[in-house]
C-alpha cells in the first residue's frame, strides 16, 4: 500500500457551472455582499461580456437570462479588471467595454428637479445623481459613448436609442467655466458636449 503524494494532486480548474452553483447558494441568504468577499484568485475563465451586453462562455452566447443576471450579481471590479466572486473563489473574465447596458430610461420632473431612472439589461434600476453619475466620452471621430454608474465602480453603457431620447431633453448650463449641453438628475448636472461645439455638428 503506497501513500498518496499530495504534490501530484491536481487542482480542479474553475468553471462557470461551479461558480453559478456557489453564487446560487450565496443568493439564498439575500443579495450577495460581493464587496465583503475576498477569496483567493483561481485564474481566468473563458467568459466575455461584449459591448452590446451579451455574455459569452467558451465562445458561445449564454442564452439563459436568469444565469446572466446571476453572474452579473457577483461581478466585481478591482484595479481595472473584472472578476466573478463567490465566498470561496475569484475568477477573471473579459469585458470589452462596460459590463452592463442601460436599455431604457424613465424621465420624471423637469429642470434641476428632473430624475432619470435607468434600467439595465440585467435588471438593475438606478436613478442618476450623486451616487450614480452619468459620463460621456467621445472617440476621435466625435462619436459619444455615454455611461451611467450602477454599483461599486460598475457602469452601464447607455444604448443609442435611450441616449438619443435623452439628448432631446438636454438643456444648456454652465460647467467648469463653460456652457455645456447636458442632463439634470436629482439636482446634479451631467455635461454632454460644450455648447461651442454644437455649431459644428
Automatic annotation (TrEMBL):
Q: InterPro entries given for it?
A: DUF1285, DUF1285_beta_roll_sf, DUF1285_C, DUF1285_N
Q: Which domain of life is it from?
A: Bacteria
| Xref: Pfam families | DUF1285_C (PF21028), DUF1285_N (PF06938)
Instruction: Give start and end of each DUF1285 domain.
Output: 32-98, 99-192
Output the Gene3D superfamilies linked to this UniProt entry: 2.20.70.10, duf1285 like domain, duf1285 protein
Q: What is this protein called?
A: DUF1285 domain-containing protein
Q: In which organism is this protein found?
A: Paenirhodobacter huangdaonensis
